Amino acid sequence: MRKWKHSVDLFELLRILLALVIAIGVSALLILITSETPLYSLSVFLFAPFEKLKYFSNVLEMMIPLTFTGLSLCIVYQSKNFSLIADGCFYMGAVVASFVAIKFVLPVGLHPFVAMVIAGIVGGIIGVLPGIIKIKWQANELVSSLMMNYIFYFLGLYIINYFLRDPQASVFASYKFNPTFALPRILEGTRLHVGFLIAMASVVLVYFYIYKTKWGYELRVVGDNLNFAKYSGINTAKVLIVSQFIAGTLAGVGGAIEMSGMYKRFIWDSPASYAWDGVIIALLTKNNPKYVPFAAFFLSYLRIGADLMSRRSDVDNQIIAIIQAVIILLIAAEHFLAKWRLKSENKTAKDKYITANLEG
Q: From CA 187, how far away is CA 106, in angstroms rounded?
């Protein structure tokens, strides 16, 4: 059994690594075809984030929201639900945190913590809505969550516009946050903040929740076989709601940390799009939280590299969209390397049969 599981894990790892290599290879080929300085553009894309501490810290900064939304989607997909309400949770978490940052006067350290708690609760409440609608009316959670994202986006804009907007600002922006709201920096001379450490701690907590607790076990059973979970006496509706609440809480906290660590006022005038990043991370990690930081680092590194390439060469940074599309296409394709998997499983079964006969 252990050998078979090892074979399956090896197969999934090979699929993911090969998908990443193919995606980067396709992008490299497009750069070589379209750029007037292809080798220079490609070298900037692949290696520039390591040139300076500032650039590398940018990679780690971008990892933070990706980690929170990746963890959120890992929990959602563990239950085999496909809600993308993480965008609404993240955006409203940022709005609520901005309200706390402007309206509350609290000591240093306590101020961002209170904002995270409130944003997390709001994100959790928003996160359960598609689950409740699915349980009560059998509505597809993907459709309802996508529709709700727009509802909460415009609700957030309304709150900022009518309660927090700075009339003196030349662009859409809130009043400045109180200085006590800012998270401390980890590295001097960079914007890397304590939110990175909170994100890494969240990875450990989510892994412990999913694989080391009774509630996580029930979540995985519900995701693997809903009917079996019902016949086993598991309250599947409760499991679904609790998991959606935790997932929404993570996204809401992520929005609060992004505001506290990276901004001095709220300036988002377009919808957040981190849920789709979370989908990619969940696919890359097979919903296992312990691999989320690596997937988040990979995406963040590519984006910073693409951004640096667009500044220094004639290649647009939207090439990252091609990489993401190829990754999703290959990992989601069940027949990708399916023959290799079948041969591997047959060999494992044959070895097991021979071993059993020899022992007998």
A: 25
